[in-house]
Amino acid sequence: MTQKKICPRLIEVALPIREISAESVRDKSLRHGHISTLHLWWARRPLPASRAVVFASLVPDPDDPWCPEEFHKAVERLLKTNVPSQLCYYNRGRDVIRDKDPYRPYDELPDTLRNRILMFIAKWSPESLAFDKGKRPKPPKPAELLDDRSLVKWETSDPENPRGREILQVAQELIKIAHDGKLPTVLDPFAGGGAIPLEAGRLGCEPIANEYNPVAYLILRATCEFPQKYGKPGKRKVLLDEFGKTIEKEIDIPNVLLYDVEKWANWILERAREKIGNLYPEGQDGKPVVAYLWARTTPCTNPTCRAEIPLLGRLILCSKQNKKTAIELCLDKNTKRVLFQIVRGNAIRLTEGTMKNRGNAQCPFCEQITPVADIRLAGQGGRMGQQLVAVITNSPNGKDYRAIEPIDLQAFEDAVINGVELPAEPILPEITSQSEEENISNSTGIRVHLYGLKTWGSLFNRRQLVAMMAFADLVHQAAERMSNECNNEEYVNSVRVYLALWVSRIAQRLNNQCSWLQDLEAVAHPFSMQKISMVWDYPEVNPLSGSTGSGQQQLDMILRVIRHESTNSPHSRVQFADASHLPNKDESINMIVTDPPYFDAIAFADLSDYFYVWLKRCLGDFFPEILTTPLTPKSEEAAALKHRHSGNSERADNHFRAKLSSAFSEAHRVTGAKGVISVMFAHQSTKAWTALIQTLFSSSLGVNASWPIDTERPNAAVD
Fold it and tell me: What gap in Å lies between CA 68 and CA 594, rounded to an integer?
């Protein structure tokens, strides 16, 4: 009996790598509505690469002789002979440019159906092709690198873009035909930030997102379950003014999830202003406060001096042309106290602060250097303080700066006397519970404990803690009110998750490890390099200001994601499970696409503890099944982190290999012999790649093809 041959999947044969890479790099700079702005998660895969890999893994190669005839005909019809009219033109500004054959291959390529489906996935724009041929003097903008009819392009996912909806419909039809009219099930066992299951749903599949980390689990539900499930039209009762009277009226709402999240977040903001608004008073100039700039202080180690050194990296507050502003140190030699004033333009004489190379500090009084080792000892001994340096305000012309006034000092004192719980959960308990010294190898990139900051609560000053606790308490109050107004507890919980993620986002910029960006006049959070490094001077944002880092700004980012992802796509089924023990049945999954952990590159669980302590305070009563442990679970995390194994790198390596091997064995079990597993792996270490390949082989899996896709901006920090 002759065995029937199986047509290879497109991903096993070809991919438009350069085009996908270009859009993937662009993806890292997209913000409005992009899922990366819902909540921080590290190393989230680019949406273009995820969409391309899922699609190319689900469809056969149309040029293969064993390609199903029905699929072959569908590609010819949809991408050649009968292209939908919506795709036969594109726009450049106000101009409409007709193009009846958008997926014809490049001039140097033969016109085959394989090349047409590759052009459908990603094709260079006419502007890019003209530039390459020397017919255009300047390269096109990033948004114009690819043809507007490309599947992987960001604009294709916009639910308000009719051309994008048509492209996705073509992709969905091709996938459905490739699977005998059924919707394939796609599982990501390491779903993380949700790019892969989100794109699987966008392509019309039945996506399953699996996660072990509770923070990622909540992000997943808010990314690829709730918007698609609840972001629908409905009715809501609102108060309206009619003929001088306030009446309650039921009106049509285009997106009830969007409406309710915005409504209850604003309700929380209003109550927060009543509760803590007095802690952020205006100064004599009447300008609202955006942020307070603080400097940590440490004793000078010169025994004849012992002044308190304000630890300042740079004295510049704003480096913009025609707006240069800086701090000037004023030394009171009698009291050995440093005061500060604001100087501008040509009056700026000094820009370098007291912090020198390698974390050493120079005393402004005696000019002696205090070594970083002594600064660490001061922090561990409770002798490191902080001092207000300047106030950042809002003005009609943008940000402005002023000196500290008594009202600013009094407001902080008012916060200090406000009794508030200090989150006592430890940072890196395997390390900080040992001794003052770091005697276990630390491969996490978290270093603040070396300066005495050993609990997550220590990363907030007292006013920040008062504000954070107020927001967390108000989430509970809002949740209680919502339950009284709506009897659908599952839906109410979805709104609660967004409110908690919003508070978690506020915490991302309301802490004492943020930085002030002088060139942008904005607040940078401490996680941009997948670690938490010690910061000497930091901006304390006013969460009620509506400006950089505020609650309103964080809410706007979340609302844009909800709006963008409120589509008719199938929503994901989100599982809370270890990838090496999947709850799915044997051979129940058509395909797995996943981005497994990166050996020892990112300490996901340790970093996510920062957010976990706040999410637990907001949602612990509503999601006890995932928020029961004091910190995120770590013992079964697939990572080669030495500090979890008493500094033993070999044991850490073996743990990672064992977990990954078990996960791939589970992937093999749930997909069966006919299933396809596509792995996206972004690691530069040869050791990590060796571990990946060996675990694939040990799980009885083979490698059919590999493709190098650029997914990061050069020299860019991950946001």
Answer: 27
Q: What is d(CA 7, CA 72) in angstroms, rounded to the nearest whole number?
A: 12
18 shares its domain with 154? yes
The model's pLDDT over 364-377, given as tens digits with 9 standing for 90+, comes to: 999 999 999 999 99
**186 membership: H or E segment, kind and range:** strand 185-188
Domain boundary among 404, 437, 462: 404
Q: Which two tokens stand for residue 280?
A: 């952020």
Domain count, the chain: 2
Query: Could you tell me if residue 618 is inside a domain?
Result: no
Please give the helix or strand (H or E) that residue 264 lies within, else none: helix 256-276
Same domain assignment for residues 21 and 144:
yes
C-alpha–C-alpha distance, residues 68 and 177, integer Å: 9
Both 170 and 319 in one domain: the answer is: no
Mean pLDDT, range 179-197, rounded to an integer: 95
Q: Are 670 and 589 in contact (CB under 8 A)?
A: yes
For a pLDDT cut of 90, what percent of the chain falls above it? 76
Q: Contact, 231 vs 565, CB < 8 A?
A: yes
Helices 462-485 and 406-416 pack at an angle, to 10 degrees, of 60
Neighbours of 39 (CB within 10 A): 26
Residue 681 buriedness (CB in 10 A; 0-12 / 13-18 / 19+): middle
485-500 average pLDDT score: 95
In a domain, 315, yes or no: yes
Q: Shortest CA distance to 255 belongs to which of 32, 491, 562, 570?
A: 562
Which residue range(s) make up the domain with 386? 284-404
- Does 170 fall in a domain? yes
The predicted model gives 287-308 an average pLDDT of 96
Q: Residue by residue, what is the 3-state secondary structure of 410-451?
A: HHHHHHHCCCCCCCCCECCHHHHCCCCCCCCCCCCCECHHHH
**Interval 385-427: pLDDT, tens:** 999 999 999 999 899 999 999 999 999 999 998 878 888 999 9
Q: Which of 341, 369, 404 is the last residue of a domain?
A: 404
DSSP string, 577-646: S-TTS--SPTT--SEEEE----TTS--HHHHHHHHHHHHHHHHTTT-TTTS-SSS---TT-----GGGGT
Amino acid identity, position 255? N
Residues 30 and 160 grouped into a single domain: yes
| Calpha distance 717→719 (Å, rounded) | 6
Q: What is the pLDDT of residues 337-353, one digit of tens each?
A: 999 999 999 999 999 99
Please write the tens of the pLDDT for every residue from 53-64: 999 999 999 999
The rounded distance, in Å, linking the Cα atoms of 117 and 562 is 31
Residue 511 CB contacts under 8 Å (≥ 6 apart), including other chains:
459, 460, 464, 526, 538
Residue closest to 432 by CA, chosen among 413, 415, 418, 452 = 452
Higher pLDDT, 419 or 608: 608
Joined together, the tokens standing for residue 480 give 């209680």
| pLDDT, mean of residues 647-666 | 90
Distance separating alpha carbons of residues 222 and 188, to the nearest angstrom: 16
Same domain, residue pair 160 and 301: no
> Does residue 11 sit in the same domain as residue 136?
yes
What's the mean per-residue pLDDT of the chain?
91
700: tokens are 């009885």
In angstroms, the CA 30 to CA 711 distance is 13
Question: Do the beta carbons of residue 149 and residue 167 sit within 8 Å?
Answer: yes
Would you say residue 641 lies in a domain? no
Cα distances (Å, whole numbers) of residue 214 to 6, 18, 579: 40, 35, 14
How would you classify residue 637: left for phi > 0, otherwise alpha for psi between -120 and 50, otherwise beta?
beta
Please give the model's pTM, rounded to 2 decimal places. 0.94
